[in-house]
Amino acid sequence: WGLSSIRVNFQRFLSLTMLRAALSLAAARRSACSPAIQTLFTRATARHGSDPGWKGDGRPCNVTFVTPEGEEFAVKGEMGQHLLAIAHDNGIDLEGACEAALACSTCHVIVDEAFFDKLPNPKDEEEDMLDLAFGLTDTSRLGCQIFMSAELDGIRVKIPSATRNFQVETFVPKKAGAA
């Protein structure tokens, strides 16, 4: 073993040790918090597959994502999934920094007018996050709050040319169509 491999392994060990300590501390703090704070913590730390909207009910649906350059990608998802999950499942470059916890506006999409009136009204939390979105329009919504249903099948949404994310350096976008 060379010195560089020892250094890398030691850094990994430290990172894992610090992560375990942070998770233990977070669990202790969470149990001492009010129910409202526990709910917020649980939502913010939900993982793909455990949060509603990341998994669908198996019935197929169709979504068209339009890139800022005008390129269109017709993709398949499942009823019950939100647009952020469908985008991620299909390699579409829609950020979603908070992983659908309603804590950012990076999954902002512009909904085609033909479908906008079919959407339920946004919650106050979504409207608060939309206030932070880049390029806000009259038909702007958060992709994590648009859950696919039969009446939304075939929805067409445009991805804005930029997002406002204070942690951009950690996001690595996937190319549309890449697996």
Would you summarize the structure shown here?
This protein is α+β, with helices and mostly antiparallel strands and 179 residues long.
List keywords for this structure.
5-stranded mixed β-sheet; globular; 179 residues; alpha+beta
Q: What would your notes on this structure say?
A:
- The chain has 179 residues and is of the alpha+beta class.
- It has helices at residues 3-31, 35-44, 83-89, 113-116, 124-130; strands spanning 60-66, 72-78, 108-111, 140-142, 155-158.
- Strands 2-1-5-3-4 form a five-stranded mixed sheet.
Task: Quote the distance from N terminus to C terminus.
Answer: 35 Å
Give the helices and strands as they follow along the chain.
Answer: HHEEHEHHEE
The percent range for helix content is 25-40%
Mean pLDDT rating? 78
Number of strands: 5
Layout: helices, strands, pairs:
Layout: H1 3-31, H2 35-44, E1 60-66, E2 72-78, H3 83-89, E3 108-111, H4 113-116, H5 124-130, E4 140-142, E5 155-158
